[in-house]
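Posted in: Structural Biology > Protein-Ligand Complexes

Title: Requesting predicted complex, glutathione in pocket

I'd be grateful if someone could produce the 3D structure tokens for the following input. Sequence and ligand are given below.
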Amino acid sequence: MTMKLLMRGPSPFGRKGTFAIAHLGLSGRIDIGDPDSEDHIRSLNPLAKVPALVRDDGDALFDSRVILEYLDTLAGGGKIIPTDTGPRFNALREAAMADGILEAALLVTYEGRYRPDQEPYEPWLDFQRGKIQRALAAMSDAPPAIDLLTVGGIGLACALEYMDFRKQYDWRPEFPALVAWLEVFNATHPAFADSRPSD
Ligand SMILES: N[C@@H](CCC(=O)N[C@@H](CS)C(=O)NCC(=O)O)C(=O)O
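-- Reply #1 --
Done. Output follows.
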């Protein structure tokens, strides 16, 4: 049985996985597709979130951080998660910060999606946008490496393009250094564009 990464097209957490698969040269070993149904993803992940990676034995791994660590192991280790202590924990902290941006951005989107008949609750949106703003400022001051790509850079690139896509936070005017960072990222890793959601 081939391994399969289950995700849904626009999922930024899923994109971390689809891009990492390409970047690590694992495309021939792992299929990518949608879950068959909500019940399907629930049966694999009680949290009912994508992505989930179904392994050869049918067992599923989640969440995206665990999946990226597994992909790194499959690729021989030390590729997107450094092995030396200093760089390793720096990359893991960057990844945690990027995931925090994504979580806050997702909550901004869900505020409208799951309360469709109500006025947006601005204090909650501001609270989430404050997290995004502070984390982007920190990452703009010390951006993740691009050439020696780690989970930190993967997470940040997915977070920035997710906010371009869903428009939860207009980050470009405020953070020109990150605009430049993303341009170099895309030029250095053309496979990233292939993982961009289309809808
Ligand atoms: N911490 C999780 C977050 C995954 C997540 O929030 N996925 C979203 C799609 S981008 C989802 O499945 N949401 C459905 C839900 O919250 O029930 C990860 O890193 O994989």
